[in-house]
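Protocol step 4 of 5: obtain the predicted structure for the target chain.
Materials: sequence only (see below). No template structures provided, no constraints applied. The aim of this step is simply to have a reference model before the mutagenesis design in step 5. Sequence pasted as it appears in the construct record:
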Amino acid sequence: MNLKDYIPLVSALVIVLGWAVTYFFNLKLKAKETFLSRTENDIRNLLLHMIADLRGIREEKHHPTHLRKIKSFFEKYRSPSSHLYLSTSSLIIKQFNHFEEHYVLYQNNNSSEQLDNLYTSLSILEDSVNMKLNDYRQVLFKQYNWFYRVEKSPFIVRIYAELLKIVLQAFSALTLTALIIVFATLIEGGLYYSLFTMIQLNVELYFWPFRNQIYGYTLAIGFLWTLLHLLDWLMYSFKESPGSKNYTNKQIDYHKKNKSFLSLQITPLPANKEKEEAVENSANTNPIIN
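Step 4 output (structure tokens):
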């Protein structure tokens, strides 16, 4: 075949590649928007409320109030209106079901063994919710940090950052298309040699004669795609450090000098045990926040 004979094939490939790049770009963008929206909804509507309720149960020392909080938690998240069952995390749903089972068993048989199982299920659920909350926050903050950093950057840097995103999406689609063509080339070559060996069938090949060029272009596109992902990762990896929670005397003196807070008088603890118990009972029955 002459080179002119491949013009229709090349034209068709260009059209298919253009369609594939556009489709992949739009599909991935829509999926990313949906993913971030669902992640934000999970944090706002479920995880923040659930972790606050679980910590409230664990930190409550007044026994009747403690049991009421467990019951309220049980009824709140098992109701049909609960956001739990629209959660993106099947792990949280399954572990809440474990808590639900242990709570029902404890209601029927309030033994120490059942109470241990109930508290263990609550502890495991709290750990999982806390882990998911941290993971989801990191996903969202990675996006927010990138946009905030870009908005604070000079105009040229903003153009570069937006252009990098567009080029990265385009190269992702090109890489996927190139891998599909490589896969089709290997299938075509394998089928040809299998048929030619078995039945001496001679057919016209479209991809296999250009396999070296296809492999070369695919490697080049893959290398550029990797390089662009590396640049993207370097931009996303920027994080503001919160610093250490162990403050130095210099930090304490600086902030005391620059910001005025209410000076509190620290009173010593009661001297004897009876006074301690009286204060604790009074706080449990009638807590006062100064």
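Step 4 remarks: Confidence is low (pLDDT under 50) at residues 282-290. Residues 7-59 form the longest helix (53 residues).
Proceed to step 5.
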